[in-house]
């Protein structure tokens, strides 16, 4: 079986792939090929790890299984009549994203971001900042999305005795019942036709002035223009944004200059062992594939996850 590794890995992970796969399979590494030869090698492969160009995926007739290097499915929602199995890394980033979520909230609530700026200016404010700080303890939190990220976040927040509600696709219609009393609104939603622009201006305006908005789902989940207007008018306390509608965030975006916005630059899915863990996950799923067993994280493109 020919296995094509499309993702850029460090040498240690590449060697892990080769050691584990070479005895039985032909292993082809994208970065070891000339750019002219990459597509041809992909089209001749049985299995691919990574996120190849959409047109390659639409063109292949030999591929039996594509394991994505992401939880997100963009642009593969546009696949046409594909015959291969498609899996992603759904749930893999739950713990890391949840930790960034809580870290971002605490940074805003305890003014860590502002104190860091003051440190670069060698400016001591001490007592003056104390009365502006907030407690996460027993905050009312509304989490949109009941996947791994949402549930892990709820688990971490339980240590602060937060009053946390999680809404999923079946209960999202109840959102207006919770927004007016919500201290922290967290979106962990995927990018689907149902979630695009879901967090609208109407919903954002229902939040109280002390509310904090956190988005670790997808930038398309929120009406970004409305969010900017509300933040500029100080209608809510602020926002922690791991994701934005356009990434990388353009240099002319107003988000860069807004003191009530904390940008974590879509880094929340990362940790030092992220890549080695991906190799392990793929090898475990490959064993299932070889045995004809059901693969982990089969994607339903109609649902969008």
Give a description of the structure.
33% of the residues lie in helices and 14% in strands. The model has no long low-confidence stretch (mean pLDDT 97). The chain has 2 domains: 2-92 and 271-291, NAD(P)-binding Rossmann-like Domain (Rossmann fold, 3-Layer(aba) Sandwich); 94-263, 3-Layer(aba) Sandwich (Rossmann fold). The chain has helices at residues 11-21, 35-43, 54-59, 94-109, 112-120, 127-130, 148-157, 175-178, 201-205, 224-232, 274-291; strands at 2-5, 26-29, 47-49, 65-67, 85-87, 140-144, 163-167, 184-187, 212-215, 238-241, 261-263. The protein is elongated and about 65 Å long. It is α/β, with parallel strands linked by helices.
Main sheet strand line-up: 7-6-8-9-10-11
Instruction: Summarize model confidence as the mean pLDDT.
Output: 97
Strand content: 5-15%
Q: What is the CA–CA distance across the termini?
A: 28 Å
Give a short account of the largest sheet: 6 strands, parallel
Low-confidence sequence ranges: none
Q: Label the CATH architecture of the largest domain.
A: 3-Layer(aba) Sandwich
Fourth CATH level, the homologous superfamily of the largest domain: NAD(P)-binding Rossmann-like Domain
Assembly state here? single chain
> What characteristic shape results from the CA principal axes?
elongated
Can you count the beta strands? Answer: 11
């Amino acid at each position: 079986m020919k296995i094509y590794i499309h993702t850029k890995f460090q040498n240690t992970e590449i060697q892990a792939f080769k050691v584990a796969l070479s005895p039985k399979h032909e292993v082809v590494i994208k970065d070891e090929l000339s750019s002219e030869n990459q597509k041809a090698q992909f089209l001749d492969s049985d299995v691919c790890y990574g996120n190849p160009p959409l047109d390659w995926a639409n063109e292949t007739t030999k591929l039996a299984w594509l394991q994505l290097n992401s939880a997100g499915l963009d642009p593969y929602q546009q696949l046409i009549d594909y015959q291969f199995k498609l899996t992603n890394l759904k749930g893999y980033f739950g713990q890391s994203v949840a930790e960034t979520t809580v870290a971002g909230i605490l940074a805003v609530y305890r003014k860590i971001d502002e104190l860091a700026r003051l440190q670069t200016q060698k400016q001591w404010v001490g007592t003056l900042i104390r009365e502006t700080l907030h407690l996460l303890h027993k905050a009312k939190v509304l989490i949109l999305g009941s996947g791994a990220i949402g549930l892990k976040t709820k688990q971490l927040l339980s240590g602060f005795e937060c009053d946390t509600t999680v809404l999923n696709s079946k209960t999202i219609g109840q959102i207006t019942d919770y927004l007016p009393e919500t201290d922290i609104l967290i979106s962990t939603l995927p990018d689907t036709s149902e979630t695009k622009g879901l967090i609208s201006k109407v919903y954002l305006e229902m939040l109280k002035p002390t509310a904090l908005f956190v988005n670790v789902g997808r930038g398309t989940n929120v009406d970004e223009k409305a969010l900017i207007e509300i933040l500029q008018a100080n209608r809510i306390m602020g926002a922690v944004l791991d994701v934005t509608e356009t990434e990388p965030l353009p240099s002319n975006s107003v988000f860069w200059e807004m003191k009530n916005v904390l940008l974590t630059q879509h880094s929340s899915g990362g940790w030092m062992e992220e890549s080695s863990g991906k190799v392990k996950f793929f090898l475990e799923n490959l064993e299932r594939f070889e045995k004809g067993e059901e693969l982990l994280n089969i994607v339903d493109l109609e649902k969008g996850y």
